[in-house]
Amino acid sequence: MSAALRRPVARVALAVLAAVLLLAVLGGRLAPLDPLAQDTAHLLRGPGAGHPLGTDYLGRDVLSRLLAGTGPSVAAAAEAVGTALLLGVLPGLASVRFSAPLSWVALRAVDALMTLPFTLFAIAAVGVLGNGLHQAMLALGVLLAPLFFRVTRAAALGLDRAQYVEAAELMGAGRFTVLRTHVWRKVLPTVAVTTAHALATALLTVASLTFLGIGVQPPAPTWGGMLASDLGFLAQQPWAPAVPTALIMLTVGALNLLADALRDAEPAAPAPDPGPAAAAPDPLREPEEARDDHRVRV
Amino acid sequence: MSAALPVPAGRTAGWLLRRAARAPRSLGRVLASAVTVFLLSSVLTFGLGAVSDANPAAAVLGETATPADIVRLNHEFGLDRPLWAQFGSWLGHAVQGDLGRSWFTTLPVGDSIAAALPVDLSIAGLALLLAVLLGSAAGIAAALRPGSRLDRAVTALCTLLGTLPAFVVAIGLITLVSVQLQLLPSGGYVPLGQDPVQWLRFALLPALALSLDAAAGIARQLRTSLVGALRENWATGATMRGLSRRRVLFGHVLRNAAGPAVTVLGMSVPMLIGGAVVTERIFNLPGIAQLSLRAAEQHDVPVIQGTLLVTVAVVLVANLAVDAGLLALNPAARRGARRSAPAGAR
Amino acid sequence: MTTASVSDRPLSDRPAPGSPVLEVENLRVSVGRGAAEAVREVSFTVLAGQSVGLVGESGSGKTLTCRAVLGLPAPGVEAAADTLALAGTDLLGLDGRGWQRLRGTRLGAVFQDPGSFLNPSLTVGRQLAEPLRVHGGLSRPDARRRAVELLDSVGLRDPETVHDRYPHELSGGMLQRVLIAIAVSGDPALLVADEATTALDTVVQAEVLDLLARLREERGLGLLLVSHDLAVVADATDRLLVLYAGEVVEDGPTASVVAAPAHPYTEALLAVAGLGPGTRTRFPVIPGRPPAPATPAPGCRFAPRCAYATPDCTLAPIPLTTGPDGRKVRCLKGS
């Protein structure tokens, strides 16, 4: 895994992510102006002196709003992925010991979760649990958990039958030791890849939710909220949506590149889940270029 | 918003793909799985309402609701019954098309959804059509000359489009087509049945915004499988029979290479529906996502549950259609049982 | 070229017995741009009703030769020749449409691993009927009737049933018969069989060879039989070309070549096949491996593996000389 991080692509991605993280932590303090301060004399200005990225329809400084909006977006995405990790990894490991019928039910439950579109489910969660980004992120975490469940289960299943694990058990290593030393080493890289992808997905979902005005109160700046307000003034400022979009895509792109670099460093992909109805592989059906486990359905 | 990940080539197959790649054995098995998934989803959907402290009185009367109001309205909506009884009657009615009544308007939820769903289905249908047309054209063009400039351009474009979320594409399209060129309206809707031409004017941009990602996925998948299939001996065999390049491609290679692309297409359906939420808002379409958003603001639990359940049903039906399509493309699976008695050589 | 009718082509349209159906003169094939030629100076003729064998180890250039004749060079492979003609049609500079018209009508081919040459998701009948409809303009029911006839004519029992089978439902021998039926469906002047019997078991192999011989007799087609196994070719051909490292090393009537091989490589091949005069005494393995085409030795390419090699063998290129009996050999031994 460390070898993967030394690759140039991974380095660039890490640098971008570190910068975004710094913005998220410092965020508002780096902002040159108050992100909420309205300047009615300078509405919808282009980039220029005093306002490096221009002003919005209320005369608020776009750069300051962008910086202040980074923190909540990143924190929300992290919250969702944290929930997903918690709900996905441990059950995934445990599921290796499930009986066949229980496995079948667990996999169908995972299918059921993966059938739900992220955004719609998050909206529903906000609707019944109350309007807040925490509620939405909890819901998103539940929907992202299957990704972790699947990759952990796949990695652990392959390992369960690996001879060196058996050998370790025969030599008297305890269950916990085996789990810690062998399973983690195998599972951790795939979990890292999935985490990067899930973070990217979560960031995009946060952007669409805040775009829809969910989870945040209007004056507070968010990436998605900025996009939504820019949309009303496309005639005056057709370039305006490009600013938050660029930051979103940069972050998401870096996460994806990092995930790819991490995966490329892996010797082999996790074994496909055999499942109860595994049929003989059909070369015709087997897609050569397959979509990823971690597809986004925001 | 739809798939926003640049999908890396040829590594771990996605679980959905893998499921389809396993070549469904029989429709019955696929159906059993779909029914189970639907039941589990309905539990989840119902559970969402059950864990909330939202109640019809609070939703309608807000802060002014008295405890008496709450008890009265809860009784009216059957919320004072045990949970399992509520779930049973909810699901029982739901499968018959009765999704209950809105707490807020007391209108049947089914009617509201029936009014909104055609918007999404017609636009998603157009988006699928565009995705298939654009994706196949690009994928076939790239596969016919692998390594050419065209091929590289298609690959690069697909990677870019696969990264852009639908709302970014939507905003870009509005900026370019509606604001700058003033060719198409930036929002609004006319039902297809009322005026197909007007419908197309309003539906084209949202459908295009939704379709580009799926088109990129199809193009990429089709290119890869076509390049692979064109190298197969049976493609050479078809050529040796004196068939034209076009006939070899459309009559033989495309048929066999289409499976993964069909799977990608099927996977696009939940993405189209997910992406529809934001595109509906951007293009101001009276679809199911707007309904769900309004319901969420009003804490109108029956409407929220209804929209979710219907969405799940649409996704599952789409998956079933894809499985059926794969089954039709794969005679080996369909006729495996008949293998036992081959005619012998003399 | 006239539109080929399928079943009822007038006999006059068929090449007269003994007239050339395939003429190859100085065929050269190079793999990769600027690379050394993997096939050099290959010349031969196949006459109507004649069977010509092309023998050599893998890497000898027999498949490249075959593919050049079929107009199916692999990507990056370039073929050139002084003459390349099929029953009067010049194949050099033939465009895609021209090849299309020839394939499935005047030119048929069968290959090793027949199952892989059939589309797995279409019935064999449909794949057999397709060229009949495309080239012969047959209607759907006519094409079906003709397809069943063809399946019957290649010795498949219960052709009606076979017609509706998918490739994976048939055995290897049956699949090869189906491919042969497809190859002869357009009444070809030339049938190319590239390792057509290689993966089949011995009994089926003999049956397929018999079938090819029968079709050749009945239809008067020329047969180019390509194999690594001299035992296969020896029984089934009139004339034999032995290829080594892209060159013809021996060329003559099969019977006399088998009876008295002039080239040490042919002798070794015969020994491997268990046919040659020295079979009992010689260990039936040819020592060493064929040279890589990229590094041609100046003289005889077989010299490093040859029991008779002398210093003269590696000095200069050895010409293909024609003996008094009309047999050709590329060796200094006899001269």
TrEMBL record, chain A:
Transmembrane region positions? 74-93, 105-126, 132-151, 187-214, 239-259
Quote the Gene3D superfamilies the UniProt record gives.
MetI-like (1.10.3720.10)
Record-annotated ABC transmembrane type-1 domain positions: 70-259
Compositional bias of type Basic and acidic residues: which residue ranges? 283-298
Q: Which InterPro entries would you find in this protein's record?
A: BP-dependent_transpt_permease, MetI-like, MetI-like_sf
What topology does the record note for this protein and the membrane? Multi-pass membrane protein
Indicate whether GTP-binding appears among the record's keywords: no
The Swiss-Prot or TrEMBL record describes its family as follows: Belongs to the binding-protein-dependent transport system permease family.
Q: Which Pfam families match?
A: BPD_transp_1
Descriptive protein name:
ABC transporter permease
Q: List the residue ranges of the region (Disordered).
A: 266-298
| Cellular localisation | Cell membrane
Coiled coil regions in record:
none
Report the superkingdom from the record. Answer: Bacteria
Q: Could you list this entry's UniProt keywords, alphabetically sorted.
A: Cell membrane, Membrane, Transmembrane, Transmembrane helix, Transport
List the taxonomic lineage. Answer: Bacteria, Bacillati, Actinomycetota, Actinomycetes, Kitasatosporales
UniProtKB/TrEMBL annotation, chain B:
Which residues are listed as membrane-spanning? 27-51, 121-144, 156-179, 199-219, 253-278, 308-329
Q: Which InterPro entries match?
A: BPD_transp_1_N, MetI-like, MetI-like_sf
> Which superkingdom does the taxonomy of this entry point to?
Bacteria
Matches recorded under CDD domains:
TM_PBP2
Q: Which SUPFAM superfamilies match?
A: MetI-like
* Subcellular locations according to the entry: Cell membrane
* Keywords assigned: Cell membrane, Membrane, Transmembrane, Transmembrane helix, Transport
One Pfam match: BPD_transp_1_N
Q: How does it sit in the membrane?
A: Multi-pass membrane protein
Instruction: List the PROSITE patterns hit by this protein, alphabetically.
Output: ABC_TM1
Q: Which residues form the ABC transmembrane type-1 domain?
A: 117-322
* Family matches, as PANTHER family: DIPEPTIDE TRANSPORT SYSTEM PERMEASE PROTEIN DPPB-RELATED, PEPTIDE ABC TRANSPORTER PERMEASE PROTEIN
**Family to which this protein belongs:** Belongs to the binding-protein-dependent transport system permease family.
Please give the name of this protein.
ABC transporter permease
Q: Which organism is it from?
A: Kitasatospora saccharophila
UniProtKB/TrEMBL annotation, chain C:
SMART domains listed in its UniProt record: AAA
UniProt KW keywords: ATP-binding, Cell membrane, Membrane, Nucleotide-binding, Transport
CDD domains of this UniProt entry? ABC_NikE_OppD_transporters
List GO molecular-function terms, semicolon-separated.
Answer: ATP binding
Q: Which Pfam families match?
A: ABC_tran, oligo_HPY
Does ATP-binding show up as a keyword for this record? yes
The ABC transporter domain covers which part of the protein?
Answer: 22-270
**Location relative to the cell:** Cell membrane
Please report the record's description of how this protein sits within the membrane: Peripheral membrane protein
Q: Does the keyword Cell cycle apply?
A: no
State the Gene3D superfamilies in the record.
Answer: P-loop containing nucleotide triphosphate hydrolases
Cross-referenced InterPro entries: AAA+_ATPase, ABC_Ni/Peptide_Import, ABC_transporter-like_ATP-bd, ABC_transporter-like_CS, Oligopep_ABC_C, P-loop_NTPase
Primary subcellular site in the record, as a coarse category: membrane
Query: Hey, which family's this protein in?
Result: Belongs to the ABC transporter superfamily.
**Could you tell me what this protein is called?**
ATP-binding cassette domain-containing protein
Q: Which organism is it from?
A: Kitasatospora saccharophila
